[in-house]
Amino acid sequence: MQAPPANTQLRRAQLVLLLAALVPTIIMVGVGILLLVLGSATTIALGILILALCTSVITGYILGSIFVGKGASLARLQNDFVSSVSHELRTPLTSIQLFIESLRGNRLDDAEREQVLSLLGREAQRLEVLVKRVLDLTRLQSSARVWPKERVDVTELVEEAVAVFDANTLDGPTPIGRTVEPGLLVTGDRSTLVRALANLLINAWKYSGTAKKIEIFARANGRWIELGVRDNGIGIDHTEQRAMLEQFSRGRAAHETGAPGFGLGLAFVQAIVRGHRGKLTIASEPGATVVGIRLKRRREATAPVLPGPLIGENQTAP
Known about the structure:
Blueprint: H1 6-38, H2 41-104, H3 110-141, E1 150-153, H4 154-168, E2 176-180, E3 185-188, H5 190-206, E4 214-221, E5 224-231, H6 252-257, H7 265-275, E6 279-285, E7 288-296
Parallel strand pairs: 2-4
Antiparallel strand pairs: 1-3, 4-5, 5-7, 6-7
Helix pairs in contact: 1-2, 2-3, 4-5, 5-7
């Protein structure tokens, strides 16, 4: 007999917890209040003990509900993830199966065979890229991951991200505007921060029209540093912005324009920003989108300036 899904089991556990703990506790609270009303010393003491016990039970119920609720959310997230991965894997696997069947029948001429082999290689590469990106995202989201705490110069960080962007957009080179305050420093993993900014630049490039205007900026804001990418693309509807941060989630505009991708770009950025104890923000409307990253500013201690030797101490006055 097949067991019910984990999410269903957790909901049942929550209901059992409600019936087994909360309902009897409410009855006992009524009894405790009644004993207090009766007024004798014995009944008052007994009523106080019952109410104290009920308070402990209610506290335990609240904590148990929180843990069960988090378990249900985790189970739902796992189910959504498996469903999304299965959907994304199905397309290339179906194409590969069709291409293999075409080759197996030996009904193709040389030109058609070469074309099928080329398509087969492309789908296999797409499948490999998808699996690699899923594994990378899983590692980034792992609670056991230890994030390096390097000294990172923000100006160098921006230049490296732009270089990665240029290497990935050779078929449509686009100049990137830069507005970066000098001297900004953060603490973190340089390679993943470069990847986060590069992902934002590539997203801006993919979802902008032919007259692309993309800018990357970095500025200080008190204890924080705000980095971000601004573009003149199709925008992200405000009702979709929260969902866009989840893996395999793509907006309606992305499907309508047919832009390539798996819906993992912003999920990568979100995982990296969370790992650095930062915050990811989206402000968007058609023709103007700003995706920002807020990171804690690093301040380096300056060495104290020591007074020089006085005249007559190991030196001679001019």
